[in-house]
Design a protein that fits this description.
single chain; mainly alpha; 8 helices; globular
Length: 191
């Protein structure tokens, strides 16, 4: 498949294929372009790496056969995002927020790739809204006032995105206020 097709598939929301474990990479490409994982990113670091790598490929081979079945462990990083006791761990949330750094970097990388960038932007907004919702669960509504997430909010609000439902509309409206003031508001269904 060509580079554009692969990059579009990389950002299909229901078809997340950003993992590195199910791909074979040429070390010569990694070395030639000094490709490395971003050590500031804890979520989507693999997708960022795959995106950067793919931009240096002329052709990509794809095998659609399913050779692996994913099992979600109860002690995984993803499962820790919403603990059963309802107490939100700030450090876990801050790590989750780093996926927005990955999305922002990928958005910059894809400036000359209109279709993949569109798919990426839709996914970026969706996950940023999910993250922002979780930020709003933190009791101290000024905790993220000086966070890099305010820059992320500004970037998110510059993307053409149409909310799919009232929840997304509420998050976008609250995100606008956060971007301006740095203060999160309580979620309506939480208050």
């Amino acid at each position: 498949m060509n580079q554009e097709d692969f990059l579009c598939r990389l950002f299909f929301q229901e078809n997340y294929q950003g993992y590195v474990w199910n791909k074979i990479f040429k070390k010569s490409i990694i070395d030639k372009f000094n490709l490395r994982f971003d050590d500031r990113v804890y979520y989507r670091e693999d997708q960022l790496f795959v995106c950067e790598y793919a931009l240096h490929c002329d052709a990509i081979r794809y095998n659609p056969a399913r050779m692996y079945h994913y099992v979600q462990r109860s002690d995984s990083a993803t499962a820790a995002l919403m603990p059963e006791d309802g107490v939100l761990d700030i450090k876990t949330l801050e790590r989750e927020m780093t996926q927005c750094i990955a999305f922002s970097k990928m958005r910059s990388l894809l400036k000359e790739h209109e279709d993949p960038q569109w798919f990426l932007e839709q996914e970026y907004v969706f996950y940023a809204l999910e993250t922002f919702y979780r930020m709003r669960l933190v009791e101290d509504h000024e905790y993220f006032k000086d966070s890099y997430f305010r820059d992320i909010a500004k970037e998110i609000l510059s993307i053409e995105y149409y909310p799919l439902d009232d929840w997304e509309k509420e998050q976008l409206d609250s995100l606008k206020k956060y971007e301006q003031t740095g203060i999160t508001e309580e979620n309506k269904d939480e208050g």
